[in-house]
User: What shape does this take?
Amino acid sequence: MHDFSYYIQLLLAGITVGSLYALIAIGYTMVYGILRLINFAHGDIFMAAGFFMIFISGTTSIYVSLPIVLILTVILGVTVERVAYRPLREAPRMSVMISAIGVSYLLQNFAIYYTGGLARPYPVIPFLIRDITIGNMTVKALTIITPVLTVILVVALVLLINRTKIGMAMRAVAKDQNTARLMGIKINNVISITFVIGSLLAAVGSILYFSNYEQVTPTAGAMPGLKAFVAAVFGGIGSIPGAVLGAYVIGIVETFIKANNDYAIFSNAFTFALLIIILVFRPHGLFGEKLAEKV
Amino acid sequence: MKQKRYLLYSLLLAALILAVLIAIDNSSLKSSMLSTILQKAAIYALLAVSMNLLNGFTGLFSLGQAGFMLLGAYSYAILTIPVEARSAVYQYFNGGLVQFSVPVVVGIIAAGLVAAIFAFFIGLPVLRLKSDYLAIATLGFAEIIRALIQWNTLGPITNGSNILRKFPTYSSLLFPFAVSAISIGLIVLLIRSSYGRAFKAIREDEIAAEAMGINLAKHKMMSFCTSSFFAGVGGALLAMFQQSVQAKYFTSAMTYEILLIVVIGGIGSVTGSIISSFLFVACSEWWLRFLDAEQYIGNFKVPLLRSGFRMVVFSIVIMVIVLFYRRGIMGTNEFSWHAIERFFKDPFGRKARMKEREKVTESHE
Assistant: This one.
């Protein structure tokens, strides 16, 4: 049997993973809330942020490259929206979703082309990696910084959405686009800002995630992306606290499953089983609003 | 009269294709790139049409294709590996639990049936969901199936995450074409039946279809199971084509590839899916290969070309189609001799437009 500190360590690792999923999940849930679109490319934007870091840190110091990575990721996210989603605003939902899959395919193939398909080592960010000792356990600073940073960002975001003018505009657009437009809200700007926030959080998540896993592959974004989406659905799509809660549930349970060798192969399958259970018993998620079907 | 002529054309075309295939099968071309492309494209055509039945004709956006292909491929392999080869294949599991093997045809049908049975049980909870939720739930099921098959505890049956091989494959190029053609034929018959019309009604408007007395749950389930049956058959063919099968390759990327074939061909067009399968496979495996190697024109090294560039170009082409040419090659139309005849008589539709204009002026007078 393992001792108590083993489980505490697993729990800490789970919380870290959960926080990372939370950062990605917020991007999904915000975009879905406003556009009703599963942004399949979100996970790949997260992956792209990893590669931005690798290439920029090769030319300049790590602390200069951090803000540059954030900016580049935001530009990428907004560009994807402009080029691939905006022209299809009036198209059937299936077309937009296919477009999102197409973008994901493009980003992955481009990453494979650029790297030759190999995993690239992620640069070491000293203040994230250094060891911290608490009691008789030693953990990476990352394990502590990640959840704290996530909580700060989530609180800031909730304040932004509930207390500011742009937040009000976002809520209005999510409720009803046409009415929002009649009220003088510039829909396109609001959507762009949603993508800015989503990509920014994905970039922060990417820096923390890849510092932990130490390498980036062209398909590294796909699985975290899907899991974050499941987290968003679990919490009720459109609800930020819900997405965060879902992300922690998935992160922690997954870490415990992974630690047991017999069932490690089900760590991904668990996420999807959770998705199906929640969709069958509570289709609008834990905190989502129930939408009536209109003819 | 016209009908007879078109039937004659179709028979001639079929005979021509058959003759070409037999010629390739009996010549040195058999082991060439051309032959490989044709086999793979025939299999992909079946996979694309089966996905189109669900996504294009019934309007159910499902992303579970790879999972059902996986079930088909594994069922076929597990059931048909000769008994004497089992100890070699299942070397980590003492020869495995299954100690019999069935003929190829039975194996292929079983592949379809297993996929369809799984589809039935998956469909019970999942088909109630709407568009994107359905997509993500079916995608999830494909992942769950992949994990289950790789699970070590099921090893005596599935060989865990190890490769399955030594099952019977086909020797003639005609085999995948024949199975594919029969399967697609059956799907077309289904689409043209009253069930097919019900599918299309559901695609156009679920609520209206329900009001017309169409049993939504029953028809959705029928479409889902049929599509999965043929995805399973396609998976079995793919296993034969590759001569081995391993669960880890049946990822969601495979589903996306087939989805993109359907999109390029036109969502809701069987012939579109077939044409685009052949184009897609030929481009990705053959015609665009040159993009992956360094090229020189004289002394000038063409920039950008190196391994992986082909897929980048490919994905850009796909994005352009998705964004600017959403109908794909065929839209929701089917290949018809009538359309071709009209095209040759009046290539740019000029005469038709003139006639239209005359009619308008006449009605004004």
The radius of gyration of chain B is 23 Å. Chain B has 16 helices and four strands. The mean pLDDT of chain B is 86.
